[in-house]
Design goal:
Layout (H helix, E strand, L loop, with lengths): L2 H18 L2 H65 L4 H11 L20 H12 L1
């Protein structure tokens, strides 16, 4: 076969292939694929800010929680550290007395019922006693 015959044969094969090819369907398929790829890229672009927002929110929660925990721990350390310095020189009996006094309300003295009778109370104290009993 010579070159001219080969060219004619190739043209006929190309013509048959072109006849079988649906150009419009191929163009539609290519356009749909391009649109699908573009939509997938857009979804990915929209998804990234949401993911970064979630990561940032989690980071804020962790850092904020850590800051609160540190503040609580520092407050507890300060309170505990200042107490022994004030009470360091007290004996065991004195420390027990301090603990008993701390448990009582400020400004009020507790008197045992055996130490006081109703006759020992003045008018103001009797009224206060009656009001406390009435509720």
């Amino acid at each position: 076969m010579n070159d001219d015959e080969l060219e004619q044969l190739a043209q006929r094969l190309g013509a048959r292939a072109a006849e079988r090819l649906d150009v419009e369907a191929t163009a539609r398929a290519v356009v749909e694929r391009l649109r699908a790829e573009r939509a997938a890229r857009e979804r990915m672009i929209l998804r990234l800010p949401r993911q970064w927002l979630r990561i940032a929110a989690a980071l804020v929660i962790v850092v904020g929680g850590g800051a609160v925990a540190l503040r609580i721990m520092r407050t507890n350390r300060t309170t505990v550290a200042s107490v022994p310095a004030d009470l360091d020189g007290l004996s065991t009996d004195q420390l027990k007395q301090v603990l008993d006094d701390v448990g009582q309300p400020a400004g009020e003295t507790v008197v045992s019922a055996q130490d006081v009778s109703l006759e020992d109370l003045n008018t103001v104290e009797l009224r206060a006693l009656l009001e406390s009993l009435e509720g």
